[in-house]
Amino acid sequence: MTASPMTTVPKIALKGVTKHFGPKKVLNGIDLEVAKGESLVVIGGSGTGKSVMLKSILGLLTPDSGSIKVDGEETTRLRSREREKLLHKFGMLFQGAALFDSLPVWENVAFGLIQGEHMPRSQAKEIAIAKLGAVGLTPDVAELSPSELSGGMQKRVGLARAIADEPEIIFFDEPTTGLDPIMADVINELIVQCVKDLGATAVTITHDMASARKIADRVAMIYQGRIIWTGHARDIDNSGNAYVDQFVHGRADGPIKMQIKAL
Amino acid sequence: MGFLAATGRAFLIFLEATGRLALFTGSALSHCVRPPLYPRQIMRQMIDIGYYSLPVVGLTALFTGMVLALQSYSGFSRFQAEGAIATVVVLSITRELGPVLAGLMVAGRIGAAMAAEIGTMRVTEQIDALSTLSTNPHKYLVAPRLIAGLTMVPLLVVVADIIGVFGGFLVGVYRLDFNAASYINRTWEFLEPLDVISGLVKAAIFGFLIALMGCYHGYHSKGGAQGVGAATTNAVVSASIMILVWNYLITGLFFSTK
Questions:
Q1: Which end of chain A has the smaller Cβ count within 10 Å, N or C?
Q2: Which stretches in chain A have pLDDT values below 50?
Q3: Amino acid B258: pLDDT
Q4: Any domain includes B21
Q5: Which residues, at least 6 apart from B161, have a Cβ–Cβ distance to it below 8 Å?
Q6: Is B6 within a domain?
Q7: B60 pLDDT above the threshold of 60
Q8: Does any domain span residue A102?
Q9: What's the mean pLDDT when you consider all of chain B?
Q10: Which residues cross the membrane (chain B) (predicted)?
């Protein structure tokens, strides 16, 4: 699990990406590179632009300026057809799992296979059940509706859906938020396992340091819409950066002042 | 100065909303005719709109037809024109009340459900999830609903026309003691194809508007449960008003002889 040499083209490269909503600048010039096959964890407080960054890479939001390259190709100006094709490379686990509640569990997992790749339903169902097995769920869960599942099980189904059509890049949006510590660790291990099995590039955003330590090859810290530190996961405790130190140890005192008053 | 600024701002917001709706409509329409379509989704929506709306639309039409016969009798008997009741009932139902009342009932039933479902999908990130699974949300969510609305509401109105006229017949024959055969004769006598056709054209446009408003407001809802609630209200209110406005415009188009 070592990062590729720097001479190769990075899997994802962001340069000077900015995005504002109304008067509020959420991304303030993001520069970030993710090498092929590495697992990058982006840490940062609430409202620092983590989710907006992921959604900008996926094209769910259009950045105001800057460049986002995937496999060396510029993606910020793609038309919807090309965007759909690009998104075949991506899988995403959403914070609230975002399962389709009108469909049974197996169809959720098989969705990308049936709709995106036009696979016959029976074949897609077999794959879906296999993927559910990979995240530790039994075949009888397949026929249930997502609303019948617990939060942890929904996250697992979301993970199975994200890996179902074997993406090259997987995004995890706060994968452990809202789970108890044991279930959080189960999800962390599943993430590590799935990413390794697929040989995928992974980007995780989280403020859960236990999760970050478990998943990350490399860690980046985002603060006020900028990446202020990147480094190896093992260097996280002696980063030499006061902001990172404060965040990693969860202290109220330090250079990061909590914004109590809304902007 | 404050007044001018406020007016200008309101005007700009209006322009922005109009533009956004126009873009949304254009994109959704283009997805209705470009493959791939989603037959399962279209079928599901058709059943929801066409089949499950039958009871409420049928009941509305039945009582409307009945009350029309009753009202026109008490009015027309003042100048001995009771004979026109059957004609009044059939013309009112096919040209106006069938499509408008069916449209309003469907707007309440379906427009609200669409806005709530799509709105919830928006705030729980399900729409984003669709995109990441390489599925265009306009194509998967909006186009099937527009197609179903456009095709199913006219069929509902055919049923409403028949039941409404039947309601008038029931009251005419069993309450007002008309001869059944002559009531039926009177019903057919002055009815022209254009009366029914104009009603069905209205129905198709209403069905489209209901689905469009449900999808548009749901799609752009934000801010959790409250946002979804507001989207639902906006969908029903805007669809209802559009139905009434377009009803006048289409009537003018079909029947403006002067």
A1: C
A2: 1-4, 263
A3: 52
A4: no
A5: B61, B93, B94, B98, B196, B199
A6: no
A7: yes
A8: yes
A9: 91
A10: 51-70, 146-176, 196-216, 228-249
A261 lies in a domain? no
Whether B98 is in a domain gets the answer yes
In a domain, B167, yes or no: yes
* Span B218-231, average pLDDT: 89
The structural domain count of chain B equals: 1
Query: Tens digit of pLDDT for each residue in A176-210?
Result: 888 888 888 888 988 898 888 888 899 999 888 88
pLDDT of B235 over the 90 cut: yes
Q: How many domains does chain A have?
A: 1
Contacts of A101 in chain B (CB under 8 A): 126
C-beta neighbour count of A136 within 10 angstroms: 13
What's the rounded Cα separation, in Å, for the pair A163 and A133? 12
Whether A245 is in a domain gets the answer yes
| pLDDT over 90, % of chain B | 60
Q: Which residues of B sit within 8 Å Cβ distance of A?
A: 36, 38, 117, 121, 124-126, 128-136, 140
Residue B31 vs residues A62, B35, B144: alpha-carbon distances, Å: 22, 7, 9
A91 to chain B: which residues are within 8 Å by CB?
Answer: 132
**Nearest by CB: B128 against A60, A99, A112:** A60
Q: Give burial (CB, 10 Å; 0-12/13-18/19+) of B107.
A: buried
> Rounded mean pLDDT of B154-169?
94
Distance from CA of A94 to the nearest CA of B (A): 8
- Report if residue A4 sits inside a domain: no
CATH number at residue A226: 3.40.50.300
CA closest to B27 among chain A residues: A80
- A98 to B129: CB separation less than 8 angstroms, yes or no: yes
A102 contact residues in B (CB cutoff 8 A): 117
Provide ipTM, 2 decimals.
0.85
- Provide the token pair at A82: 């090309």
pLDDT at A1: 44
CB contact under 8 A, B126 and A87: no
C-alpha to C-alpha distance for B89 and A169, rounded to whole angstroms: 65
For residue A234, the enclosing domain spans 12-249
**CA triple B77-B80-B83, angle to 5 deg:** 90
